[in-house]
Amino acid sequence: MPHPWLKERPLTPCLRGGFSTVNQTGSWRVIRPVLDISKCRDCSMCWLYCPEGVIDRENNYSIDYDYCKGCGVCAVECPVDAIEMVKEE
Amino acid sequence: MSLKIRDLPNEELVAPGNSGCPGCGATMGARMAMKVLGSRTIMVNGTGCMTVNYGVLAAARFPYLHMLFETTGAVLSGLDAGLRSLGKREGVTLLGWAGDGGTADIGFQSLSGAVERGHKFVYICYDNESYMNTGGQRSGVTPYGASTTTCPAGKRSIGESRPMQRRKDMVEIMAAHGIPYAATASLAFPMDYMAKVKRAAEVDGPSYVHLLSPCPPGWGSNDELTVEVSRLAVETGMWILYEVVDGERKFNKRLKTLRPITDYLKTQKRFRHLLDQPEEIEKIQSFVTKRAERLGLLG
Ligand SMILES: Cc1ncc(C[n+]2csc(CCOP(=O)(O)OP(=O)(O)O)c2C)c(N)n1
Ligand code: SF4
Ligand code: SF4
Ligand code: SF4
Fold this sequence. Notes:
The complex is a heterodimer. Chain A is built from 3 helices and 4 strands. Chain A is an alpha+beta fold. Chain A has a domain at 40-89: Alpha-Beta Plaits. The longest helix of chain A is centred in the first third of the chain and has 5 residues, at 4-8. Chain A is elongated, with a radius of gyration of 19 Å. Chain B is α/β, with parallel strands linked by helices. Chain B has a single domain (5-295), classed as Thiamin diphosphate (ThDP)-binding fold, Pyr/PP domains (Rossmann fold, 3-Layer(aba) Sandwich). In chain B, a hairpin with a 2-residue loop joins strand 7 and strand 8. In chain B, 53% of the residues are buried. The chains are: A alpha+beta, B alpha/beta. The A-B interface holds A 15-25, 28, 43-45, 48-54, 57-58, 64, 66-67, 69-73, 75-77, 85 and B 5-6, 8, 10, 12, 14-20, 22-25, 27-28, 31-32, 57-62, 64, 187, 190, 222-228. The structure holds thiamine diphosphate and iron/sulfur cluster (3 copies). Residues 20-21, 24, 26, 49, 53, 128, 132-133, 215-218 of chain B line the site of one iron/sulfur cluster.
């Protein structure tokens, strides 16, 4: 007889890939990256460096604020300072 | 190697919402590796921060296995042998992904065994120079002078006291196994890093890439400076970019001059106590300069 508990839960926890989207990490942010698209030279560095992968380079480098943690790497690495970090209200 | 940023896939194989700290170098490095390896990759992750980041909430949208701390190499071996016997090995990349504790210390024997048996896989060690997931204990690769929770700096302690020359040199240890490809990498040279990962995946047999992965809370560096700290590590000669291809060493970044190591050390609180100890700075600087000269890194 398997333990009754095992009927409901697999022995090895296994989740569908992408389940993490339940965790809206944007709430962690204390500073917000704001892009001035008129300065942007479309070099993709911010897109490549964003650890969270929340910059959409196919869509004018728009940032998904639901998940952006506000680390600021994109702003530091942008070669033309097109991204500014501003305090969250 | 002509890998271009334009040609990298836009598709994100890692979902947002992972629980890594803001500015985590390991999270950044894993995403870049997956950009070149693609979705037909199985990631075997020995316990560490990345298990929490990718595993616990299943951020990975590709086959991902969280394995016991010490078993990354063993699981890679089993997958390689198993997929071969099922006739399903073709077109699948096996990626070992583990921290420096999981690689240089506790997972060392299983990695060494897997490499010695000649299994085919790419192994990337993300090196944050401590056991970060459990609060930052020193590892076999923690640099001299770094303050960690198990070797805190204080009146009678310099922090990590093992001399620079005895820091476990994982790339050399792996190269000594006679594997076809081993390399170091830096997040500040992302195209170089990704080209190395690509090359590592293409060779026949085991391959090893060692990525310096700044950890803002563990190193006491600013979140936004993860890439800048990586860059300073290379420009000061604290981190050397090179690869060993079939036993031949090739240095990827020659430097005109070395920046003073304090430019790197002062970005991180773990080294802060060294800054007012000139004799210690001199000790590290002299090691770094001599090493760069010996390797012919300058000029
Ligand atoms: C056998 C065993 N011992 C201890 C632990 C507790 N543990 C979990 S993660 C971790 C630290 C991992 O360090 P590292 O491999 O450097 O990766 P990082 O946390 O830095 O990402 C430890 C000690 C464990 N999971 N298994
Ligand atoms: S602040 Fe950090 S998480 Fe947010 S978009 Fe920039 S790099 Fe990504
Ligand atoms: S790094 Fe700056 S210039 Fe480059 S794509 Fe991003 S915003 Fe534009
Ligand atoms: S502790 Fe360091 S390695 Fe771990 S998730 Fe945070 S930044 Fe990344």
